[in-house]
Amino acid sequence: MPLADCDRVQGTPLYMGAPLVVHCHRKRICTLGRGMSSGEHSNFKTLRLVIMKILSGIQPSGQLHIGNYFGMMKTMISNMENSELYVFIVNLHALTSVHDQRRLATGTLEAAADFLALGLDPDKCIFWVQSDVPEVCELTWILSTVTPMGLMERCHSYKDKVAKGIDASHGLFSYPVLMAADILLYQADQVPVGKDQKQHLEVARDIAQKFNSTYGETFVIPEPGISETTATVPGLDGQKMSKSYDNTIPIFLEGKALKKRVMAIETDATAVEAPKDPDSCNLFSMFKLFASPERLEEVRGLYVNGGAAYGYIKLELLDLISDCFAEARLKKAEYLADPAMLRALLLRGADKARKKAVVTLDLVRERVGLNY
Ligand code: ADP
Ligand code: TRP
Questions:
Q1: Which of 50-59, 67-76, 125-134, 176-185 has the lowest mean pLDDT?
Q2: 152-179, pLDDT tens digit by residue?
Q3: Which of 9, 167, 213, 325 qualifies as a FRET site for 363, CA 20 to 30 Å off?
Q4: How far is it, in rounded angstroms, from Cα 135 to Cα 185?
C-alpha cells in the first residue's frame, strides 16, 4: 500500500511487540500482530515507514522565535498525520540556564501554548512537559555510566554556552546525556532539529551504540532530521537566530515591537539600483521563509538586476510575518487564558508518554542488572 493511502496507524511499532491497527480512508484495513515479520505481511516494509517515531523537544528558556519555528516546530507539526509523534517541553534542560522559578514555570506554559497555537493537535501526538516523566532522569544516570568522558569533552555547545556567560555547572556539561535519554527512552527513529543540534544527535547515537554493544540490542539508533532549507535561520545580525544572541524575531511579536525588529535586520549599504547577491543577504534569507514562490522569484530578480530596496522589502516581510502568525496569535491568547486546561492537557500527554517510557526503562533495568 502506498504511504499516502494510509491515514491512521494505531499501536506501537512491531519491534516494541504490540499489535498495530492500520486504517485507510477511516476504515480498519488490517491488524498486524505481535511478532509478525515482513515475510508474514506484504505491507510490512511500507508500514514500518508509516509508523516512524518522530520526536523533538524545545527549551522554555525564552520567547520562541522564527528560527525555532522553521528549524523544528513546523516540521514537527507537519508530521502529525504520518508518524507516531512525540513533542515535549524540555524544562529540565532549561534548568541549566534559567535559575528563576517564575520565569521557568511561566515559560513552560507559554512554550506549550505556542506549540498548540501553531497547530499541534494533542490528540494526534504525545505532547508533554519533560519533568512530568521522571523516568528520563533514571535513564540519564544509567546512560551516563556508559558515556565516554572524551565524547562529552568534544561537545562544543558546552564551551559556547560558558563563553556566553552561562554558569559552568555539571548539569550544563552533561546536558547531552539527558538529551540522549529523552530520545532513547521513546525509541525515536527520527529527531527533527536545527543544524546547531547535530552534534547532540551524534552523541545520542554514540551513546545508544555503546549501550547496545555493552548490554545487547536495546535502543533504536535515531536519525537526525535536518532540513536543508531551514537548517540555520539567520538572526537580525546575520548570525544564527538564537534566544541567547538577542537577535531574534519572536513568533508572537506584533505591532510596533515587531516592526522595530524587522526594520533592524542588518543589510549592507549597496545602492538600490545596484545588483546584489540574494543568496548572501540576510534579509533575503528571511524573506524566503515567508514569500510565495512567485513573489520570491520577482524579488530575486530585483536583487540580481538591480532595484531591490531593502526598506520596502522589510515592510513587505513585516506584513508577511504578521499575517503568517495572525491566527496563531489569537489561539495563543485563548490557551493562556485557561492555564488549568493547559496543565490538564499536558498531564494527559505525560501519562501517555510515561506508559511508553516505562516499557523501555524496564528493558534497560533488566539489561544492566537492576532487576534483581
Ligand atoms: P535557541 O538557540 O534560540 O536557544 P533552542 O536551542 O531552544 O534555540 O532550539 C530549539 C529548536 O529550534 C532546536 O531544534 C534548534 O535546532 C532549532 N533552532 C534554534 N535556532 C534555530 C535557527 N536559527 N535556525 C534553525 N533552527 C533553529
Ligand atoms: N537540546 C535541544 C535544544 O536546545 C532541546 C532538546 C532536549 C531536544 N531534548 C531533546 C531536542 C530531544 C530533540 C530531542 O534545542
A1: 50-59
A2: 999 999 999 999 888 999 999 999 999 9
A3: 9
A4: 8
pLDDT score at 37: 41
Tell me the pLDDT tens digit for each residue of 208-238.
999 999 999 999 999 999 988 888 999 999 9
CATH architecture observed for domain 52-232+338-368? 3-Layer(aba) Sandwich (3.40)
Closest by Cα among 170, 180, 189 to 140: 180
pLDDT value of residue 342: 98
From the CA of 222, the nearest ligand is 2
**CATH classification (class only), 253-324:** mainly alpha
Q: Which residue's C-alpha comes closest to atom 14 of ligand 1?
A: 193
User: Which residues, other chains included, contact 46 with Cβ-Cβ below 8 Å and sequence gap of 6+?
Assistant: 1, 2, 3, 6
- Domain positions in the chain are 1-50, 52-232+338-368, 253-324
Contacts of 98 (CB under 8 A, 6+ apart): 60, 61, 104, 107
Mean pLDDT lowest among 79-83, 112-116, 327-331, 362-366: 79-83
User: Closest Cα partner for 59 from 161, 209, 152?
Assistant: 161
Q: What amino acid is encoded at 157 in this protein? A: S
Question: How far does the chain reach from its first CA to its final CA, in angstroms?
Answer: 45
Give the position, in ligand 1's atom list, of the atom nearest the Cα of 241: 23
Measuring from atom 13 of ligand 2, which residue has the nearest CA? 56
Same fold, 52-232+338-368 and 253-324: no
Which of 196, 201, 228, 251 has most ligand 1 atoms within 8 Å of its beta carbon, as the pocket-test mutant?
Answer: 196
